[in-house]
Amino acid sequence: MLFGLITFLTALTISGVAIYYSVAGLVAIFAAAAVPIIIMGTALEIGKLVTAVWLHRYWTKAAWWLRTYLSIAVFVLMLITSMGIFGFLSNAYQGATVGFEKESTALIYKEDRLDQLQDDKKFLKEELEAAVSELPENYRTAKRKLREEYQPKINQINTDMMSLKAEIGDLKIALVETGVEVGPAIYLARVFDSDVDTVVKFFIFILIFVFDPMAVIFVISYNHVLMNDGVQPSKPTKKKKKKSIDTKKMSDTLIKLINREPVSEDEVEEVVEVAKPVEDMEPPQSKQGRKTR
């Protein structure tokens, strides 16, 4: 009884979670019709479980075409459930990584912009030094004017670089905080020497391969427990072998008793055993009348 209750709770838990994930995944795929998808998905999931139990109970009694159709229907519904679970898990993964990818893209862009500003600053300094070196030594005023002309441009580049470095630092901190959610996936991708999307897709396929089939199997298992609960295999009863009756020997024994001749105890017991079933077959009135007499 306890094991049957455990089986029932396990089947109910796995089936309920599978239905929730499947319906949520279908809603994520068909977001424009959320309420109809919830109603349809829930009805199909319950129908799938009931059909699986019905097939288990009446497989030998149902017609072959009915068994075939219902088996195909259960298999197709399991595929639909797996697709819904895949949609739910992939949507959760994308929701966790969209911020990470956005911040990673922004970080790459700002780092490229910082490198470009550094190249511009280097180019301006080289251009300034080349222009100054072309002037004679006594053209100090001209050299000062050249430096005054280039210095604002260099200062602006320095200001932009400082601002970019601050933004890059903030993005790196945000990436560390966001990367906590997808950190295990990133680590597994490094272990298997693959990209994060491939690793996550692989694990999602493993989950959906086990999830819904286990829900169906546990419901069938609980039905099996209900059908066989309390049924104990009957032990074969040993039938007593009836002793063969030797009529000639009995008649000799009866004649000896009538003539008051000595008889053995075995002969008397054999006569009593044969006479007892005959006495039991007599109606009660006959026994009562014989007693009164």
Describe the structure.
It is a single chain. With 293 residues, this protein is mainly α. The chain folds into 2 domains: 2-228, no CATH class; 247-279, no CATH class. It contains 8 helices and no strands. The protein has helices at residues 2-29, 34-58, 64-134, 140-191, 196-228, 247-258, 265-280, 284-292. α2 (34-58) packs across α3 and α3 runs antiparallel to α4. The chain is rod-shaped, with a radius of gyration of 47 Å. The two termini are 60 Å apart. The model is unreliable at 278-282 and 286-293 (pLDDT under 50).
SSE layout:
Blueprint: H1 2-29, H2 34-58, H3 64-134, H4 140-191, H5 196-228, H6 247-258, H7 265-280, H8 284-292
Helix pairs in contact: 1-2, 1-3, 1-5, 2-3, 2-5, 3-4, 3-5, 4-5, 6-7
Number of helices: 8
| Count of all domains | 2
What is the makeup of the main sheet? none
What is the distance, rounded to the nearest whole angstrom, between the alpha carbons of the first and last residues? 60 Å
Poorly predicted ranges: 278-282, 286-293
Rg computed from alpha carbons, rounded to a whole number of angstroms: 47 Å
- Average pLDDT works out at 75
The percent range for strand residues is under 5%
- Structural class call reads mainly alpha
Which geometry do the CA atoms define?
Answer: rod-shaped
Give the ordered list of helices and strands. HHHHHHHH
Q: How would you describe this structure in keywords?
A:
293 residues; mainly alpha; 2 domains; 84% helix; rod-shaped; disordered C terminus
